[in-house]
Design brief:
252 residues
Amino acid sequence: MLKNIILITFLLLSCNKPNSFVYELNKINNEVLTKHHKTSLKELYNDKYITSLEESQEKIAKVFFLTHISQENIFIQDIFSEEHIRYALLEQIKYDIPASIKLAQAYLESKKNGIHEYSNHIKYTNNLFGIKGKGQLMTTHEFIKQTDLPFFNKNMILSSKKVRINNEEYIKLVIKDNFKIYENRWYSFRDHSIKLLNKRYEPLFTLPKDYKEWANKLGNVNNGGLGYATATNYGEVLINIIEKYHLYLLDY
């Protein structure tokens, strides 16, 4: 017990800067690679080495959570939990999707009106990425700019009204749509990866693993994006989330 307290205190004191965290990250990854005589983490993503790989990414998730997330509010601690960070890191290794992008999208698709609480459907579906499909018909809220309204299916809109958020004007839509239901949140992370492997999103994987380029490319088609979301500022919002919580440190 005392040993764990000392370790946590050491991490909080010594890893409170991005460079310190990167040092710990590289150290952990190099240790697991050296142990198995491999040169890339992707080589460890198989039945023989998966347990060792998972343990290494769990250590990284724990350090990041302790040094960057543990002092945040309950919503942030949940959405950027050690478990979610570990999922994002492992999916990054397997599919080359930046962990920062995956976590930022989980944040953005799960929150409600900028308030740090889950949208109601998250509690019942474990659907962190707003992925629609055969599942449960639910009512959700969307807050959009006037210019984004034409991109929504009018048949799904139950009501709309103008509201102000942070001194900016938005339209609050009440939408009824079908959302996929997952047994647990890991399945949601995996299905998000599979969604991005769809031909529609192929151009993402020709980009450098740079969170800004990925974020902007995921955005509205009218802005040169691939249309993961209709909001014209989707890429900008993702970038702000990534930079606010230093999620870019998890990309490798």
